[in-house]
Amino acid sequence: MKRTFIIALAVLAAGGILLVLPSFNDRSAHLGHLYCPLPSDNADDHKGCVFRTVFEGEGLDTSFILRTLDQVFRSEERGLAWLVKAQAADGGFGAGTHARQDIMDPHAVQSDPATTAMVGMALLRMGNTPDKGAYSNVLNRLTDNLLITVEQADNASTNITKLQGTQIQAKLGQNIDVALTAQFLSNLMGRMPCSHPKHDRWLNSLNKCVAIIQRAQNADGSVRGDGWAGVLQSSFAASALESAKFQGAAVNDSALRKAQDYQKANFDVNSGSAVTERAAGITLYAVSGSTRNSAREAREAKDMLDKAKKEGKVAQSAPVSVDALEDAGYTRTEAERLNTAYQVYNTAKVQAQADNVISGFGNNGGEEFLSFLQTGESLVIGKDNGWRDWYAQTSGRLVSIQNNDGSWNGHHCITSPVFCTATSLLILSVNNDIEQLLAQGAVKYR
User: Which structural domain, as residue segments, surrounds residue 367?
Assistant: First the structure.
């Protein structure tokens, strides 16, 4: 379903330039509408919870949060207005089947968990919770749809749905639904106090998703049921396990380590090349997954080495290396693991943002949007100041290719306007989740 995209690319480039040039407008007045609420500071609300505290004792660096450009703000509002109208009668959202990628009417397709979860994450990031927000009712119906799906799933299965042949499954993997649903539930719990009456139901469903993901894990850390770009399914499964662990779910540390190591192994630091056999031959898919799943450990390596330098344990000029990390207090095995993550992250993130890599097929499918999302989130988790340039360029691209009705759609593979609009909104509004993502990557000092 490929078609030439030269004109659109030219518009995209011009749009990106236009968005980068203006200075950031003061959109702080709108943060109450767009910024995702955080859980209560009352300790009694969080008894029994794993809850983020002050980041490394420093508090949030407000300079890390960008103000929202007028163009981006309007684009978000138009996209969200279109998206909520796509909700099905059962509360879910659908992308349609792989066999009928031409169907763009969101009400002419069946709901599927993967697409529903992506929309849920977009609604959360755009400032809605089950209790608050302009679209809390949409989010509540969506959440109930996913919870019922998880609760009715076979405990011995490798996915939460018997639905097959969706666009998302065909392109990302047969078990992608459970990975994205787990990610949604983690995001939901991260915004709500543990005293919430539905907390236990959310946690039980999250734990069930985690168990299913771990059951579907291959010996090398990937996930069974590869789609056309199966590396993305495995990447989102690894991210889901990481987020679930952060929320206190029963995650097996060995399974999480294997999942992350698999993603790091998809990039060879020495040659600077990506392993693309399970990424449909597309470098972007492989390097975005490698970047996303090495970001937290890369940040730990850098932050702990900086701390060791301040304490005089390591020379001020010492780069991140196995020996330097050992001097900082890690065992040889730990130092080797963190050094690998640091080198993979810092090399892969450059490739993930290179023009020739971003272009992919020369146009955008849902896989491209997902890859852009992974790169952006990894830069925030890694507390990487390069995220500002990434955001300016990527938001420019997205705003310039938004459809007149406010939606986005893919031009190959995952064409679904619902799935692509939800993913685009997650990218544009990543600034709303700065605190959540920074906390997820925060170093736990010994």
Answer: 6-18+71-440
In a domain, 269, yes or no: yes
Residue type, 27: R
Question: Which pLDDT belongs to residue 406?
Answer: 95
Cα–Cα distance measured from residue 92 to residue 265, given in angstroms and rounded to the nearest whole number? 35
Nearest of 102, 74, 18 to residue 402 by alpha carbon: 74
Alpha-carbon torsion 108, 112, 118, 124, what sign? Answer: positive
Q: What is the predicted pLDDT for the residue at 12?
A: 40
The pair of structure tokens assigned to 122 is 């977009």
Q: Give a yes or no: residue 66 inside a domain.
A: no
Please give the structure tokens belonging to residue 24.
């950031």
Q: Is residue 32 part of a domain?
A: no
* pLDDT surpasses 50 at 373: yes
pLDDT surpasses 70 at 290? no
Please report whether residue 108 resides in a domain.
yes
- Residue 364 identity (one-letter amino acid): N
Task: Find where tokens 């146009």 sit.
Answer: 363
Q: Do 409 and 420 contact (CB within 8 A), yes or no? A: yes
Q: Buried b / exposed e across 308-328, counting CB within 10 Å, b at 16+? A: bbeeeebeeebebbbebbbbb
Q: What is the pTM of this model?
A: 0.78
Bridge partners for 267 per DSSP = 274
Q: How many domains does the chain have?
A: 1
Which domain CATH number covers 335? Answer: 1.50.10.20
Per DSSP, the chain holds a count of helices (H) and strands (E) of 19, 2
User: Per-residue pLDDT tens for 265-275?
Assistant: 655 555 444 44
